[in-house]
Write a structure and sequence with these properties.
Strand content: 15-25%
CATH topology of the largest domain: Nuclear Transport Factor 2, Chain: A
Order of helices and strands: EEEHHHHHEEHEEEE
Structural class: alpha+beta
Helix content: 40-55%
């Protein structure tokens, strides 16, 4: 026997699980229990007061939700689908934007080429004028006659001697290549011997002992594009000094003085060294 805990109605049909009045789940009771006696209804309307409501598909018995395992795969499917949709959206956007960007770039290149062509035309005309001016100025420099003023030439050669001395002490081969003429032939050492420009530059070594130097008793012999400068150069090394008589020869070439020869002789005790 089964009984409804809401209306206390009892049922003897073993196939019933819910009350036909209110749908409450039936509980099993003993047949001898007085509480299981069905009390008579006062009137017929009370029987129809509440119609039978069969359990709906959404009805979940108590305790069934707690025991139901949670499914993970719907979340995985949802995340994967959102990711795929994002990739598709990016691909569509790229397919629409890339052609536009390429067309814009091509248009920009076309404008730049037109501007460059205009600039080239203008530059060609300016370059032609500039090249003519530079050619004329170069010809004037190369064909400039050698100076004839003794004082001016002495000043120029004294400055060149200073530059030559600095290049020797620093072993500045690039500077020496500018100072020496291609046909330079000079004294190799005090003992004699001659060396060419190439031999001079290859054998030069740096000297860090000399602190300063000075020229004295300078004499200039000028003959057209040729000049000879002689005098004394004194090197100061710490607390002592060493002097040399020198004779250097120069030629006016390519608009400047270039050394073609040099001779050096120590003054005083020949055994003294730097």
């Amino acid at each position: 026997m089964k009984r409804c805990s809401t209306c206390n109605r009892t049922y003897t049909d073993p196939n019933l699980s819910f009350c036909i009045d209110d749908g409450t789940p039936l509980t099993t009771v003993d047949a001898d229990d007085d509480a299981t006696v069905v009390r008579p209804r006062d009137n017929e309307d009370e029987w129809n007061a509440l119609g039978y409501r069969p359990p709906t598909s959404s009805y979940v018995p108590p305790g069934a939700e707690a025991n139901k395992p949670r499914r993970v795969w719907p979340w995985i499917v949802g995340i994967t689908g959102a990711f795929l949709l994002g990739i598709v959206a990016i691909a569509i956007g790229a397919a629409l934007l890339v052609p536009r960007m390429m067309r814009a770039r091509q248009n920009e290149r076309g404008r730049v080429q037109i501007q460059n062509s205009n600039r080239v035309e203008n530059n060609n005309s300016n370059t032609a004028e500039t090249s003519n001016t530079n050619t004329n100025s170069t010809e004037r420099v190369d064909s400039a006659p050698p100076p004839t003023d003794q004082g001016q030439v002495l000043t120029q050669l004294k400055q060149l001697e200073n530059d030559w001395t600095v290049a020797n002490l620093n072993a500045d081969k690039k500077k020496l290549d500018q100072i020496l003429a291609d046909d330079y032939v000079g004294q190799e050492s005090e003992e004699g011997g001659l060396q060419s420009k190439t031999e001079y530059i290859e054998s030069i070594e740096r000297d860090t002992q000399v602190e300063k130097w000075e020229f004295s008793d300078l004499k200039l012999a000028l003959a057209g594009d040729r000049a000879t400068l002689s005098g004394i150069i004194t090197y100061f090394v710490r607390e002592r000094s060493v002097s040399f008589d020198f004779t250097d020869k120069f030629v006016w070439r390519d608009g400047r003085w270039q050394a073609t020869g040099a001779a050096l002789k120590r003054r005083g005790n020949p055994g003294t060294s730097l």
